């Protein structure tokens, strides 16, 4: 089958495809809000109908302890590899509603952008995979590879039930490569394949002093202030250049090869533009590493918030009884979240000021992920992008975390290809989320081409 035939098919069916996608986007499948539980079921049922209509088989809804998982497959390419496509049908809440220019669950196209919650993250990108399969089956009667879909309903709340589902269904999910479109491109017209993600480890530190707030005039200078204590603890975590001072924090960090760092430099990241975009005058971080390297391949420790005392209008001369802070660490390959949390606890215990008690709570853990960027499955995705976009593909890592990706890696042991079509400017998780339809159009063709590229991975 030639590219012109596929291209014409998508052109002829563009409007009907967009209308179908809009019907998906109208379902308010917000996984974090119990009031939308019925909508989550509707989202799963919509996918079953779409997959069966596309020509896939064995479509089913599998219940979990939370929201359901949707599965379907087509397994008639004898002797060919199997591609497992992962995505999610749940979306973020829409607050603050008044900042939306159009209703979040009433999709609108403006300036060749499709506006709706989930348009980019991740319904639009999941939909593209379904339509690529449908196109090839309608045009050719078969697929160049075997294909399986697993679409979950809890990604936006951390995928709490999916690792168990994957663990219990390893035979069902057996494949040769996992493909995920839930990431972004380098920029407009600049495709990228992501092959590495940082992991995550988070803690909350609660510092308690006197049994209640005290008058700072009567007790200041004689009683330890929990806010001062928590600042002292936080100050001990990093030096002035951002180097983390927790003993053993860097012990297991997987160093990056010179060749890979050369690839990063070749991306020609515009630091001055980035500083202007985010509104800073100077960048910050470990010496010897670029902005890109600090955000992709180096671990971090960041304070996400501090609470305690009085912060209202005016002043209140109080010595607060307690203070709290939340901390998250982004982790790189070979670092283990449980090990890092243990080291953070040891550090806090050894730097705790006198006169207070400290409690530490754990939350948000996810292991880092890495597929070698020269892996054939990664390079095949790069070729497909390049054919359609007409420019070289960037091979990147991401500073963020997708915990289920690491779970897939650990449980199934497969190469994972993160080939997304979103742009950083598309407001996913924020009001006026949208999807550039240029990337919708080209993405359909890229995914279709990749299925032929993947057929040669054996």
From TrEMBL:
One Pfam family named in its UniProt record: Peptidase_M20
Gene Ontology MF term list: metal ion binding; peptidase activity
Keywords: Hydrolase, Metal-binding, Protease
CDD domains: M20_dipept_like
Gene3D superfamilies in UniProt: 3.30.70.360, Zn peptidases
Listed SUPFAM superfamilies: Zn-dependent exopeptidases
Entry keyword Protease: yes
Residue ranges constituting the Peptidase M20 dimerisation domain according to the UniProt record: 195-354
One of the GO BP terms on file: proteolysis
InterPro entries recorded: Cyt/Met_Dipeptidase (IPR051458), Peptidase_M20 (IPR002933), Peptidase_M20_dimer (IPR011650)
Superkingdom of origin organism: Bacteria
NCBIfam families in alphabetical order: PRK07907.1 (NF005914), PRK08201.1 (NF006053), PRK09104.1 (NF006579)
Protein name: Peptidase M20
